């Protein structure tokens, strides 16, 4: 059985790591502290918005996958996507990370072994 860290701990670690490297991070939706899934809105200086999520891979290990709309054309589309996800899963955390290589930061924290 794999040990799973509490979602709140992972969220806090990711926020601290991004701020320590000069980026910006914000909680857009507060999910379940213990076991809420984490959806990340990743950007680089406000450009190239994309959604990332930790998902189980074919080998049973977690992977970071792009989810959501392929091309986020504007703030309304971005907000609508994560708001819909929160309605479907009230335990969901939504984090905004605005830093170069946001995927790397997310993977470092969420995909530890």
How would you portray this structure in words?
It is a single chain. With 113 residues, the protein is of the alpha+beta class. A hairpin with a 2-residue loop joins strand 2 and strand 3. The protein has one domain: hypothetical protein tt1805. The mean pLDDT is 92. The radius of gyration is 13 Å and the shape is globular. Helix content is 33%, strand content 31%. Strands 1-5-2-3-4 form a five-stranded mixed β-sheet, with helices on both faces. The chain contains three helices and five strands; from the N terminus they run αββββαβα. Helix 1 packs antiparallel against helix 3.
Brief synopsis:
The chain is of the alpha+beta class and 113 residues long. Helices cover 33% and strands 31% of the residues. Strand 2 (38-44) and strand 3 (47-56) form a beta hairpin.
* Arithmetic mean pLDDT: 92
| Number of DSSP E strands | 5
Portion in beta strands? 25-35%
**The CATH fourth-level homologous superfamily:** Protein of unknown function (DUF1491)
Q: Widest sheet: strand order?
A: 1-5-2-3-4
Helix content: 25-40%
Order of helices and strands: HEEEEHEH
Radius of gyration: 13 Å
Distance between the termini: 13 Å
CATH topology: hypothetical protein tt1805
- The CATH class designation is Alpha Beta
Helix and strand content put the structural class at alpha+beta
What is the domain total for the residues? 1
* Main beta-sheet annotation: 5 strands, mixed
CATH architectural label: 3-Layer(aba) Sandwich
What characteristic shape results from the CA principal axes? Answer: globular
Low-confidence stretches: none
